[in-house]
Amino acid sequence: MKAFRNFTDYSSQKPLALSLGMFDGVHLGHKSIIDELLNIGSENHLETAVLTFWPHPRFVFNPNENLKLLNTLEEKKFLMEKYGIDNLFLKEFDEEFRNLTGEEFVRQILIDKLNVKYLIIGYDHSFGKNKSGNFELLQKLSKELDFEVEQMEAINIHENNISSTKVRNALLAGNIKEANEMLGYSYSVSGTVVHGKKIGRTIGYPTANIETETIKLLPKKGAYIVEVFVKDQQYKGMLSVGTNPTVNGEKLTVEVYILDFEGDIYDENITVKFRDFLHDEIKFEGLEKLIERLDEDKRLTEDFQF
Fold first, then answer.
1. Does residue 167 surpass a pLDDT of 80?
2. How many Å apart are CA 72 and CA 65, to the nearest integer?
3. Is the CB of residue 138 less than 8 Å from the CB of residue 121?
4. Distance between alpha carbon 193 and the CA centroid of its chain, in Å?
């Protein structure tokens, strides 16, 4: 897959089958669009492409909003490539771009710069200044500009439409299995192992403190069963998102106890995949009660079938 940060880097005049949108999470709704793109591309000898925005336009419109995303840039690239997309356009949502009307966007970008011959959009997608671009406009312009357009239906799970917002809300409620079901994969967090207070090692549960990207959404505070990937090796783990209230912690941390593992992994990059929710964050009366709960969490983690 080729990734482009601006359109001037893209010089190919091969016609494209393209979809546009944020694709945050690259969930099963997005996957259905990608699968359709791949089918159309194969049938019509078109390269496939996704046009998305980085950073998220909401960072431009609401710079003070504490928006957290389901994917980092590297995660989004990985998923797009994994699912078979040929070209990924990561456009900055700058002043010039945000002032394009829907029609200008179609003419100047999709047709003149990218040579789009087949366009697929999601069921609720709009684009352009004041959301002036929609499926009806695309249908009108497609005849004049010689491209085909298709609008995908919403993908449902348990009679609920899948959306990035619903995945985000499930994670913030600790509903890991529901979130993973909508994503089609296990939600993950990656980061560098950094030094912490090292309290865990004094009670028999040494943890790795993970420094994550600030834009990455963390699930609700609590304890989780996770898969841990260290140097291409997979382990079971118990992960905590929280402030360690039992020892009067204040800073939000992500810490994982890796089962059946020994070694120094400071400064290593590790990935954890969330598999199940254990319990909310608890302030215990003392370390003895904390250890009792950790022992129980460990038993549940060991019994969990990956």
1. yes
2. 17
3. yes
4. 21
Average per-residue pLDDT for the chain:
93
Parallel/antiparallel/unpaired status of strands 16-20 and 47-53 = parallel
Band of pLDDT at residue 83, cut at 50, 70 and 90: very high
Report yes or no: 118 and 19 within 8 Å, Cβ to Cβ: no
- Amino acid in position 35: D
Q: How far apart are CA 272 and CA 219, in angstroms?
A: 12
The count of other CB atoms within 10 Å of the CB of residue 78 is: 14
Q: Which helix (H) or strand (E) holds 190?
A: strand 188-194
For residue 180, what is the enclosing H or E element?
Answer: helix 176-183
CA angle 50, 86, 233 (to 5 degrees): 100
Own/partner long-range contacts of 192-201 (Cβ < 8 Å, ≥24 apart): 192/267, 192/268, 192/269, 193/265, 193/266, 193/267, 193/268, 193/269, 193/270, 194/266, 194/267, 195/266, 196/253, 196/255, 197/244, 197/247, 197/249, 199/244, 199/247, 200/255, 200/257
- Please give the average per-residue pLDDT across 166-174, as a whole number: 97
E-strand ranges in 16-81 read: 16-20, 47-53
Give Cα separations from 299 to 225, 238, 280, 292, 294 (angstroms).
11, 10, 17, 11, 9
Contact 106, 138 (CB under 8 A): yes
